[in-house]
Amino acid sequence: MQLNDFFRQNPRIAVAFSGGVDSSYLLYAAKAAECDVRAYFIKSEFQPQFELDDATRIASQLGVPLIIDRFSILSAPSVAGNALDRCYFCKTAIIGRIRELARLDGFSVLCDGSNADDDEADRPGMRALCELGVVSPLRESGLGKSEIRLFSYKAGLFTHDKPAYACLATRIPTGTKITAEMLEAIGRAETALFDMGFSDFRVRLIPPFTAKVQVSAGQWDEAAARRLEILESLGSEFGDVVFDLNLR
Question: What is the pLDDT of residue 122?
């Protein structure tokens, strides 16, 4: 099925929106097809502020209404406990909330930005999407990440080269209970690195409160040169800071 075929069959859709490459292109394509489309962004403890800023920016540029809902995902014990199935329970709660909001607004079709490269076996959250009846037009149209980036570039979307960004919960080892304090410290640390100009990195937690900084191979030389600056910035958030020498 071609993407425009989907929009012809579904001219009124709600989009579970993250502000990332895939959901941004989906929003653009729906708007270009003259769909009645509305985006829904859930701001929980797992999303840093810059993700919300990006989502707001792209929705504004596209002229698509954006509904922002603040939701405490840590109020769900099955999520805060951080077991192996955390992603499933998190996605169930978040998508369930979006579906509720979309239905109140009169939308019966809820879409997300999953693409053809997403491996269902490796993403337990996709099971929740299936159970909740979420449609993935990019995936159903056979569009993979490289094509979506190319089409986004041609469309002039600033998200075309945005690095993949997993939620902040992925920075905390499985089995370690997630607290707001941990997430806030990691979020501030990653914002600091972002403000320094780094674009592909992670700050992971080594319990109880040590930060492990990971950067891509292409940015390691700069990170090494600015080591003291990074240590000074992140040292106020963590008891210790270490650098991961396993280049990604």
Answer: 56
Q: What is the pLDDT of residue 126?
A: 81
Closest by CA to 159, choosing from 27, 54, 53, is: 54
Q: Where are the domains of the chain?
A: 3-161, 179-243
HEC-encoded secondary structure of 147-182: HHHHHHHHCCCHHHHCCCCCCHHHHCCCCCCCCHHH
Asked if 26 and 136 touch (Cβ cutoff 8 Å), the reply is no
Q: Which residues contact 46 (CB under 8 A, 6 or more apart)?
A: 73, 90, 167, 168, 169, 183
Give residue for tokens 């797992």: 46
pTM of the model as a whole: 0.90
Q: Which two tokens stand for residue 47?
A: 């999303």
Report percent pLDDT > 90 for the chain: 82
Structure confidence at residue 140 (pLDDT): 93
| Average pLDDT value for residue range 195-211 | 92
Residue 49, pLDDT above cutoff 90:
no
Band (121; pLDDT cuts 50, 70, 90) = low
Provide CB contacts within 8 A for 3, sequence distance 6+: 29, 137, 138, 141, 143
CATH 3.40.50.300 corresponds to the domain 3-161: no
Residue 94 main-chain phi, psi, to 5 deg: -70, -50
Rounded Cα gap, residues 57 and 225, in angstroms: 32
For the chain, the distance separating the N- and C-terminal CA atoms, rounded to the nearest angstrom, is 36
